[in-house]
Design goal:
Length: 149
């Protein structure tokens, strides 16, 4: 969501932006490459999410945002993430608001207006935001560099 906000900010206030980094994000709208249906269901089934504890929800999200190998090999980082997310749990109405904002994001036609040097970065194992979204952004933004980790 931060990348969506950064795109809008850059378009609304180009005089305030000298360079831009877009990490694991998309342009929105019909040009956005969607994640797998099971991921969308997992993230947006708000009635099911209401039934989870904050820790259960955090661990469920981890299975989408990082690889199983990472979870297995980085127990300390995983536990720290779960603690932090649990301490600062987002209320369900906040999750719904974020979802609506992301769904409403569509700047595909305005991407060429971004005139600052832009680094578009993503991971090749990202399940939530498919890598093709970063390739699309980099191809439409002048002066953009794509880095896939």
């Amino acid at each position: 969501m931060g990348g969506c906000i950064a795109q809008h900010f850059t378009l609304c206030y180009p005089e305030k932006v000298t360079s831009l980094i877009l990490g694991c994000t998309h342009c929105g709208g019909p040009h956005r490459i969607k994640s797998e249906p099971w991921i969308r269901e997992l993230l947006h089934d708000f009635e099911r999410i209401k039934q989870l504890t904050p820790e259960e929800h955090a661990r469920e999200i981890l299975n989408v945002i990082v690889s199983q190998e990472f979870i297995k090999n980085n127990k300390d980082i995983v536990d720290q993430y779960v603690r932090r997310v649990t301490e600062h749990d987002t209320a369900i109405h906040g999750l719904i608001g974020q979802y609506k904002a992301i769904i409403g994001h569509d700047i595909y036609n305005r991407l060429p207006e971004i005139q600052v040097p832009t680094l578009v970065i993503c991971g090749d194992a990202d399940k939530m935001i498919p890598t093709e979204n970063s390739s699309l952004l980099a191809s439409k933004i002048p002066n953009a560099e794509l880095v896939i980790l």
